[in-house]
Amino acid sequence: MTELSLPARFEGVEMIQRVRIPARLAYEFTAGVATSRFLRQVVRKRLVGERCPVCTKVYVPPRGACPTCGVATAEQVELGHTGTITSYCIVNVAFYGQAMDLPYVSALVLLDGSDLPIMHLIGEVPYDEVHMGMRVEAVWEDGDEMEPTLEAIRYFRPTGEPDADPATYGEHV
Amino acid sequence: MRDVAVVAFAQSASAQEGDRNEVEVLMPVVTEVRDQVGVTTADLDFVCSGSTDYQAGVPFSFVMTLDAIGPWPPIRESHVDMDGAWALYEAWVKIQMGAADTALVYAYGKSSPGDIRRVLSRQLDPYVTAPLWPDPDALAALQARCLLDADMATEADFASVAARSLAAAEANPHAVVAGARSVEDLLDEAYLASPLRRHDCPPVTDGAAAVILAAGDRARDLCERPAWITGIDHRIDPHQLGMRDLTAAPSVRVAAERAGVADGPVDVAELHTPYSHQELIVRRELGLADGTEVNPSGGALVANAVMAAGLVRIGEVAERISSGRAGRGVAHATSGPCLQQNLVCVLEGDRGR
Amino acid sequence: MGAERVAVVGVGQTKHDAVRGDVSIAGLVHEAAQRALDDAELDWADIDAVVIGKAPDFFEGVMMPELYLADALGAVGKPMFRVHTAGSVGGSTAIVASDLVAAGIHRRVLTVAFEVQSVSEAMWALSFPYPFQPPMHAGAGGYFAPHIRSYIRRSGAPDHIGILVALKDRRHALGNPYAHLHEPDITFESVRDSIMLWEPIRYSETCPSSDGACAMVLTDEAGGDAAAASGRAPAWVRGTAVRSEPTLAAGRDQVSPLAGRECAAAVYREAGITDPAAEIDAAEIYVPFSWFEPMWLENLGLCDVGDGWRLVDEGVTQLGGDLPVNCSGGVLSTNPIGASGMLRFAEAALQVRGAAGDHQVDGAQLALGHAYGGGSQFFAMWVVGAAKP
């Protein structure tokens, strides 16, 4: 470090190592046209993805553009509420804003009929029984009117079906 | 140096993007600029973008916006947390070094979701200045006051700049404010931050811009009349306002010298001066002659999509050259409080080439 | 590569720590930059331009901090350029600086990267709970852990591989006085028994959160020759490459992203490397979670697909092995996010300059620096050599 020589009156002055400067900024976020279409269905407990007109992949939630083709997705595709776990992790650390009891499972769930897994929680099953290929279904929050967020799904739980054929989800592992 | 030109330019701007997110704002602009010259993302050698997380209110905000260009198969790409004019500079460097012959440059920013004046105060020294939350209008007003006190300008001069910009905006479909007003009329308005009035300050704007650069024969293939970049340079001044003579912008002067502004007549200049008095400073530092048409688009006083507005200036000049309305022009971009950082770009048609 | 050859003639970094309360942000970047200039035997006035990089501005609560840092980095009156490409930014920043020299625009460029993670809550800045997006349930580790699990499933790697990488890098860090973590008492058992944060990722298999900065001085060929003539070996830039792909795309391989494979192929091609595993003497690879070492070894083409973990198991990647990886201690020992990529690039340069001190690979001639960012979709790499290209 550079050597500093201070005027005598500063000698012995305690160095300030931290100042606390609270800063608050408010933003009004916009979901976007495509994601809004999706969220307006989520409040009705429906999962509606969108298909790329070029590569035909189905994205849920749609985000406005097909990320590989750079074109708007428009054709809506209603999906069921079931899917397959392609991978997961067991979380043992309390995370900001997360109410699940430890340990809990955060998984990649490939919804049937879609082409990109979403990340969500897995419930109603011991954490050490979760595995790749497990079939799961959405468990929605109570009530008829959901908030327009994927958190309207509380978590996914096993359906009890046999595991999915690896050929159906292998490219996502 | 290789000959590099702007061969296509597209933009969008509005006072507030209602429903569209950043991807949805950007995608049509990028599609338009590619379509102008008939290329796809895969045809382009390099992509560089400019945007800033604080404006979006989201860390890594540029990451998802990349979806708008469809970066697949993988592309050579970079991002600057600066105005898109600097993204263009990085792309120009890639072409200069021979690592690319074409490049897509884009920039975007939505100022309406947050309070852009509070947001921009976060650019200041975090220990001594930012905690005071001085907004950019107030800082610009200090600068304007310095000009008045030095007898370098009058409030009527500020109003003249605003009046000319508002009148020019009537012909600019991307202007978010427009309408001819007399200087006297403008001087009757109340102060926003004395000595600046509302019309001396930039409107809140959401928008995006995109440019395609190409080198040499590739540029001639893509565009009938490319706007050649004959010089480009950028410089920065000290951050602390107390260390600067606010009536001057030495970084503009140095960048202008390096870019060769004085090497020929300047038909048109697009200056990124969000405050009316700043046009007077930048114009002086650039050494523009009286005959130069300044901000025919209306400039940043009529549409100021923060992070894209500098790139828009380059595009506006290039478009005038490519359409044959101008032979040689200067574009300027700025960043930071009171013109701290500046980029100057000289563009020229085929004359002399 | 441009017409002009590029040489690294100065490298500087700060002592990295969980909290560097003794310096301001400006003081921290100045410390690294001054050391790079001292190493290069150059003065501030010798520098033509400054290129700075860092990850999100929310970490420090300063928007576009290059404006505020212009004075501390001697950039006044010069070009000052700011890069932000997520976690790969330290590498991308060095490449922008290298390009400026390679294109013949500047002769001497100072490049700096930093992060002061102690200022704000890093976890917050990394996984900001903003509306309308799929929820992040477990932070960065929770994002990457499922992909690590996929790697383990594909390769059949045994559980102890992650432990071995962590143990190796933390031991390497003992030879690097600037490293954040110095854990002389670390053992296989202590890593194994550390808490399983995001199974399969243990606490001791994750990177720390650091304050720190890194800087390099890059010059043209004449500058490199002058350094060599005065007995200070330069590192010559033999190749650079960047690649990006979309974050969330159907069919994207998040274990071995195509962008990473193509970036590696490009940088080897430019450097004239045909057999990377044989020709590269030292590699500094961005490994924030220990399992990423075998994953990246495969992605980088340094071994066959499925064999990355075998190299770890056989000790090939430790100092003294055939392909030493992260002899500095790597990201697992030091992680000021925005600087982590540049540290990889700078440590690669130190190796071929023979200036890596106690973590030097004997006789290193060619070294790889690697950085990645986001959800493994942004890549930046360079190859540096002791010999002029």
Question: Can you walk through the features of this model?
Answer:
The complex is a heterotrimer of chains A (173), B (353) and C (389). Chain A is mainly beta. Chain A is built from two helices and eight strands. Chain A has one domain. In chain A, the strands form two sheets. Chain A has a five-stranded antiparallel sheet, with no helix packed on it. Chain A starts with 32 loop residues before the first helix and ends with a helix. The model of chain A has no long low-confidence stretch (mean pLDDT 90). In chain B, helix 4 (84-96) crosses helix 12 (309-322) and helix 7 crosses helix 11 (276-286). Helix content of chain B is 34%, strand content 21%. Chain C has 14 helices and eleven strands. Chain C has helices at residues 25-40, 66-69, 89-102, 122-126, 139-155, 160-173, 188-192, 221-229, 258-271, 276-279, 292-299, 308-313, 330-333, 337-353, and strands at residues 7-13, 49-53, 80-83, 108-116, 196-199, 201-202, 211-219, 235-244, 282-284, 366-373, 378-385. In chain C, the strands form two sheets. In chain C, strands 3-2-4-7-1-8-11-10-9 form a nine-stranded mixed sheet. In chain C, strands 5-6 form a two-stranded antiparallel ribbon. Chains in contact: A-B, A-C, B-C. At the A-C interface, strand 2, strand 4, strand 5 and strand 6 of A face helix 1, helix 5 and strand 5 of C.
Any key phrases for this structure?
heterotrimer, A: 173 residues, mainly beta, five-stranded antiparallel β-sheet, three-stranded antiparallel β-sheet, C: 389 residues, Peroxisomal Thiolase, Chain A, domain 1, 2 domains, nine-stranded mixed β-sheet
